[in-house]
Design goal:
about 260 residues; alpha/beta; Spore Coat Polysaccharide Biosynthesis Protein SpsA, Chain A; about 25% helix; globular
């Protein structure tokens, strides 16, 4: 593998990949975006920041070594933090509460989508922004996020951001994954699949406009080789369960 070049995987519509038009600074708009519902109603609630409220939603388990740094980089950007804990035995819950998070217990059922959807069930914001405990937002992306959050209204849009994996030395790997990270809080916006969970299908059903951003989230979850191997074994097992649930489950790119 040529480590001098980064391989970029854009996890967009897998049946209709068209070019993106209308680059506007930090954002570009999908040519194939569906806009039959251009706006969704805002939730009637108070907020810390001006404009629509945004909820940071997370799922965690035994993340005391990671969660503090993650929330340090993100907590002040949102109006509420919702943390769903799937069985921590360490100080994870205490750390979350120290940042003002509302913490909810949810038993692990071998299903990442189920846990993420539980976090959405508790969110009260108009917009959902999600992170994992081993994600970090650096200063340039924090500035871009602030600008993006300031522009949010009641448009029916989803925003894609890049997840940059890090090596043991903290240098970016030659692979970047692009996910929907920010979307409207709507009862039909829900993840599916046990692993490599997907919310793009729900966005398409709602006719959301897909907006690609220049925001990058640093992901440190694969820096440890032994942890990478454990995660791969876990993911394979969950993929096999997904296939057993539905043999016609489509092939999905990994996260």
């Amino acid at each position: 593998m040529d480590h001098g070049k980064k391989k970029v995987i854009h996890y967009v519509d897998d049946t209709k990949r068209s070019s993106l038009k209308g680059n506007q600074g930090d954002f570009s708009f999908s040519e194939h975006a569906m806009t039959h519902k251009s706006r969704l109603p805002l939730l009637p609630s108070s907020q810390i920041h001006s404009g629509p409220r945004r909820s940071l939603c997370m799922i965690v388990r035994n993340e005391e070594d990671n969660l503090g740094a993650c929330l340090e980089s993100a907590a002040d950007l949102v109006d509420e933090i919702v943390v769903v804990d799937t069985g921590s035995t360490d100080r994870t819950r205490d750390i979350a509460r120290r940042f003002g998070a509302r913490v909810f217990d949810f038993p692990w059922v071998d299903n990442f989508a189920a846990a993420r959807n539980e976090s959405l069930r508790h969110a009260t914001g108009d917009w959902i922004f999600w992170l994992d405990a081993d994600d970090r937002i650096d200063a340039p992306s924090r500035r871009r996020l602030k600008r993006l959050f300031a522009k949010l209204g009641n448009e029916n849009q989803v925003f894609m951001m890049t997840s940059v994996c890090l090596t043991e030395s903290g240098i970016a790997l030659p692979m970047e994954l692009t996910y929907i990270r920010l979307f409207r809080n709507h009862p039909e916006m829900r993840w599916k699949y046990r692993v490599h969970e997907d919310i793009l299908a729900a966005a398409r059903v709602l006719g959301a406009r897909i907006v690609r951003t220049q925001i990058a989230i640093q992901h440190s979850g694969y820096q440890d080789a032994a942890l990478r191997m454990r995660k791969r074994k876990r993911d394979l097992r969950l993929l096999q369960l997904d296939h057993a649930d539905d043999p016609m489950t489509r092939s999905r790119s990994s996260n």
